[in-house]
Write a structure and sequence with these properties.
By secondary structure, the chain is low in regular secondary structure. Helix content is 0%, strand content 7%. A two-stranded antiparallel ribbon has the order 1-2. A two-stranded antiparallel sheet has the order 3-4. A hairpin with a 2-residue loop joins strand 1 and strand 2.
Length: 139
């Protein structure tokens, strides 16, 4: 394991790691560096990921239900079909991220950067938007 590596629930957490399908539910991943990691289909529900580095990571079809991601760097990340229901993404950097068909119901995006993000088919239901407004499907 390198200097930026740590072991959590038996998985080596480091940049570029293959964590596809990993069960990291409820894990403390605060400030973890998982940049460019493969997290496809991983269970990250209810994980603490404050200030985590996930830029360029592939989180397609991952479960991030109730995950805490304040100030996380998800720039350029692939978040296609992810469940971010009730997730805290306040002040997160989601610039250039691909959120196609993601479910952001009940998520907190207050202060988040969505510049250049692909939001095609993204579900917003009682989602707190970056400007503080609440977005519902009909609005």
């Amino acid at each position: 394991m390198g200097l930026s590596s740590k072991k959590v629930k038996g998985y080596v957490i480091e940049p570029g790691a293959d964590l596809s399908g990993a069960d990291l539910s409820g894990a403390d991943l605060t400030e973890a560096d998982m940049s460019r990691a493969n997290l496809r289909g991983a269970d990250l529900s209810r994980a603490d990921m404050w200030s985590a580095k996930l830029f360029g990571a592939d989180l397609s079809n991952a479960d991030l239900l109730g995950t805490k991601l304040p100030s996380a760097d998800l720039s350029g990340a692939k978040l296609v079909g992810v469940f971010l229901t009730n997730a805290n993404l306040s002040r997160a950097d989601l610039s250039e991220a691909n959120l196609t068909s993601a479910d952001l119901s009940g998520a907190n995006l207050m202060g988040a950067n969505l510049l250049g993000a692909n939001l095609d088919g993204t579900v917003f239901n009682n989602t707190r938007m970056p400007d503080g407004s609440i977005k519902n499907p009909a609005t």
